[in-house]
Each structure stands twice: as structure tokens, then as C-alpha cells.
Description:
The chain is mainly alpha-helical. 46% of the residues lie in helices and 8% in strands. A two-stranded antiparallel sheet has the order 1-2. The longest helix has 17 residues, at 57-73. It is elongated.
Amino acid sequence: MTAATAAGALPIGGFGWQRAPFTLRTVQLQVPDTRVQGFDEECRRQSRLIAAAYPTEDDLAWERITEEAMADMEDWVA
């Protein structure tokens, strides 16, 4: 990295270095510490909760088949 790129200058149009028309600011992100004891168990727990909250394709297919069967039975006379 040259001093020009470190200062925020960019090569523009092949005419040498010019100052970029924008500036960048620092952003700080905080993420969980994966080294903490129990992190993997907590990930598994949350994954199971998410998996249980959303139906699978098999669940949806079974629900559709059941609804179709119930619709067919509405016209039956006992």
C-alpha cells in the first residue's frame, strides 16, 4: 500500500492520483466469543428451536394431503 492509498487517494481515469470524493469511517462490530465454554451447546440449542419453529416439506405435504382428504369426505353421506 502506498502513502497515497493509505491517505484515501485513488487512481482515477489514468491521470494520476486524486482524492476520492468520499471518506470512510470506522465501524466496530461485536460478535460472540466462540472460545467461551458452552458456546457450541448454545448454538445447537438455538438451531433446534429454529428447526422446530418452521415446518419441513414433509410436514407441509402431509398437511395438504390431509386437507384434500377431509374435503373429499365433506360430500359423504352416512
